What we know:
By secondary structure, the chain is mainly alpha-helical.
Amino acid sequence: MPGREDEELAQAAVAALKDQLALAPKPGLPDPRDRAARVTRRDHCALRWSAGALAPGLAAMAAAARRTGEPTPQLRAELGAIGRCTEHSVGLAGGGHRGALWTLGLLVAAAALDPGARGVEVTATAKRIAAHPDRAAPRRPSRGATVSARYGAAGARGEARAGFPHVRRALDALARARTAGAGEAEGRLDALLTVMSTLQDTELLHTAGPLGLRHVQAGARAVLEAGGTSTEPGAKALDAFDTDLHARAWSPRGSAGLLSGALFVDSLATTEHCAS
Length: 276
């Protein structure tokens, strides 16, 4: 049964996901702006609504980690089983968040497993959990796994087994933006673009192929090289990039999920979710 600390970690993770959803403009991704494309607005509302459905599963993952006490194969199997049940619950609530659930689930479990860990310590513990295979996982490969195999991309599993390098890159980008005096929203957008600039996003590879992926990576780099979203040239480049990706219907969802993970890890630096 999840305890108070587990519930707090789960709520912090859901808050991080909602903070990511609240950012605008997010190139190619749903956001809360009053856009003419009403389907985008409905998608955003559905995503915010269904985000709350992750909380019970994330709390259960934290409780499993706290109870187990070590990043064992048994813990990995239990997290996988909880994750599959949570996916079903989220689907009933409107769907979405599969990538964020994978990222946040491992990071929440890592935070519960290593109370007091912060930043790269959390991602290092998540790496130790992800190193074990989930032997109870469905044998039929997911779309992401199929795309990863086709193009040699790391994919979600590779990202976790490497210790979430793009979560760490996002954390570094947040720190740089704050040091430079950027607003919090602009810092988070810069962190998102930092992830997008190098991530081999399997969703993009599926919909746009390697050339499309490189187009998105180059567009993200262009915004950052223009000075970032807190500058006038960077903001103009961001708007143009956002318009371009929406027109192409290319959605870098993998980057959004990893940013959510970074915002969760970042929140641990100023709170005591893991206190015993």
